[in-house]
Amino acid sequence: SRILTVAAAQLGPIQRVDGRPAVIKRMCALLTQAGEQGCDLVVFPELALTTFFPRWYMEDQAQVDAFFEAQMPSADTQPLFDLARALKIGFCFGYAELVEEDGRLRRFNTSILVDKDGKIVLKYRKIHLPGHAEDEPWRAFQHLEKRYFEIGNLNWPVVRTMGGVMGMAICNDRRWPETYRVMGLQGVEMVLLGYNTPRHNPPAPEHDRLSEFHNQLSMQAGAYQNGTWVIGTAKCGVEEGCEMIGASSIVAPSGQIVAQAITQDDELVVARCDLDMGRAYKDGIFNFAKHRQPDQYRLIVER
Ligand code: ING
């Protein structure tokens, strides 16, 4: 067996006035705790460095770009990279990426995976952007990811590191089976994802009471149907008056929830994950080579 001790490093709310240094301090405190518990890998949330700014309609691009990172690591995040390398812990976290590519400025909802030597070994840019692109004043708060980010252009790559095959996803991605299957087809053994999920979804308030259920259902299904571990880490609690769900979870390839957060604040959720556990599913019930019938699935990509 290949045991990896993994932590979901849940973050409580980040308010608009909370600068990056204060957030990095909180992330370093969780990293230190992870070191004390012998962790190999720590998974931080989506957009971990700032408040969830897509909840506001902004027209001034400079105001929007204040929430983005123009380089990574940056002066603010360097202490996190330094501490992780000193502790020999791999980590991943999400941030708003501002980058010049193909001769123009691009903006993505991004996450990176850094190995135990401090090297960025995987980058992912969010593909399923939820919400809307224009101001919708009828909503109690906005969800403008389609306005502020481009659709990710890196697909869902996987990388062999820390003794296993790792992949990443971000928030809304976890609700779509295709996310896990594209990585499952590449042999993924552990999917690392962060999320910022408001409890209230203005278009469907009657679903608000099912928020944690849908969160768990999505990750448990993805894990089981692809024989992979899924680590889902929340940024949660009340940010600028908007409540976001916690329930950060470590899900086994069986679909069982091995560990889960119990607060709506900074909380380290730790589990020993045997990367060999997915084998029985990948070779058995979900043996893609033996049982999958791609010719029958064409509608999935043609429609
Ligand atoms: N957030 C939410 C998510 O998919 C959402 C969007 C909110 C969907 C409420 C459904 C209900 O978890 C992000 N950032 O994708």
UniProtKB/TrEMBL annotation:
Keyword Repeat among record annotations: no
Gene3D superfamilies hit by this protein: Carbon-nitrogen hydrolase (3.60.110.10)
TM spans (from-to): none
InterPro entries (alphabetical): Aliph_Amidase/BUP (IPR050345), C-N_Hydrolase (IPR003010), C-N_Hydrolase_sf (IPR036526)
Entry's Gene Ontology molecular function annotations: hydrolase activity, acting on carbon-nitrogen (but not peptide) bonds, in linear amides
CDD domains: DCase (cd07569)
Keywords assigned by UniProt, alphabetized: Hydrolase
Domain CN hydrolase: 4-277
Annotated protein name in UniProt: N-carbamoyl-D-amino-acid hydrolase
